[in-house]
Specification:
Chain lengths: ~325, ~55
Amino acid sequence: MDNVDIGLFEHDRHNTLYFYLLNSDEQIYMRYGGRDSASPETYLNLASLEVALAKGLELHERYKKGDLAQTPRPAPDFPKNYPMLVERTFARGQCVECHLIGDFQNMHREKDNTLDKLKDLYRSPDIKVLGIHLDVPKGLVVKETKGAAAEAGIQPGDAIKAVNGKTVYTFADLQHQYDKLDRRTSTEVRFTVERGHAPPRELAVKLPARWWYYDARYRQSSVDPRLYFESRPLSEDEKRKHGLAVDGFASEVTRVDSFATMMKSHQLQEGDIVFAVDSVERNPYAHTADVYMKLKQTPGDVVKLSLLRNGQRLESSLTTYRMSFRK
Amino acid sequence: MAKRITYLGLALAAALSLPAVAQDDDTIYWLDNYQEALRQSKKTGKPIFLEYRCEP
């Protein structure tokens, strides 16, 4: 593994399975894999794998005939570039687990102050947020559309052929391209679709607020501060009723993890409304207090919470913790 | 399809294991060395099927 260019095979390392089809010149034809937060198997299917491989073999025949354009190779990257990964795996004679590569990459980014949590913590956004539901055994054929995708004109039966002009053959290809969108500045994503025998058409889907967000806890990420509670965003009416900032991230605690007591992390109770963290009530990317802390805090930070409990304003502290998973 | 792919498959499980080579009996033998997979692909003209896989 230490001599493999992981820059060439750059992907979300929290996939249980991820395949590539390539040639001896290391030209990648396609990827196969991808997942959502619900399951590592949502997009894995033997029928769609067969569809993908058939297309891959077709591309390989074109390559052998010299009829396939070479794609630009990404910047090289090797495991040795991540000393913590080397120290805690190679040097100990331990296996290099996929998720460890991603986790140590993030830990180095955190150390170098280059960690961008919107991108690095929330990798592989869920296309179902756009309203795109695929007919998984058929690859990139759309089964159902809702919301933004439906408004953009994508219809059931459409076959997705490109994302922002980049050809995609599989869901993994699609997710890889979609993941490249800038979380802060992107306003739309363009899908090229084929419908029946009509020429391909490009449809722009408007990105909804927090299109990149999903429950990322399955990642067991070391740079994701553990908070040991969950919350739901308050509606605007609820915020007004409580005299809170309507555009703030005030949220109601819906679950307190038993680890909170064990780790002496905080004393939140279900029903508490957390409306500020270190006196901050608003953030353009956070819709709840816990998402705000996940984005802003480094594991180990201690913050001051402002909250409402039974109508009374209180202040309390919360200590975040760092997950150390199989290292 | 197995015979058409010099299955160079990289399986990154707890590590990176590699390609599998399809034999006449359709048995797939996975390689765990990337450079060897590239060599076999070059020699046979078959594509590489590379797998990154998490092993429990």
